[in-house]
Specification:
With about 90 residues, this protein is an alpha+beta fold. It has a single domain, classed as HPr-like (Histidine-containing Protein, Chain: A, 2-Layer Sandwich). Strands 1-4-2-3 form a 4-stranded antiparallel β-sheet. A hairpin with a 2-residue loop joins strand 2 and strand 3. The longest helix is centred in the C-terminal third of the chain and has 13 residues. The radius of gyration is 11 Å and the shape is globular.
């Protein structure tokens, strides 16, 4: 299991479009992806879980990956969030 805390820089946070892109990208990995922010947990492969977590701009998110490709999954998740989820 590996994890890293990052800050959401996308001006609107994890709204529908970036959450869908994030979930789709995480779905390519075999590892389990967990997002933790503001006392809420979300399955990083579930669009509805991500939306329900209400992760806003400036929020700190702990991304945890566990499984056979956890390092690659964590690296991709962190890079997507740090890059503004394609919308900075």
């Amino acid at each position: 299991m590996v994890s890293k805390t990052v800050t959401v820089v996308n001006s609107q946070g994890f709204h529908m479009r970036p959450a869908a892109a994030f979930a789709a990208e995480m779905g390519k990995f075999k590892s389990h992806i967990l997002l933790e922010s503001g006392g809420k947990n979300a399955d990083g492969k579930s669009l509805m879980n991500i939306i329900a977590a209400c992760i806003k701009c400036g929020a700190e998110v702990k991304v945890t990956a566990s499984g056979e490709d956890e390092d690659a999954a964590l690296e991709k998740a962190v890079s997507m969030i740090e890059a503004g989820l394609g919308e900075a």
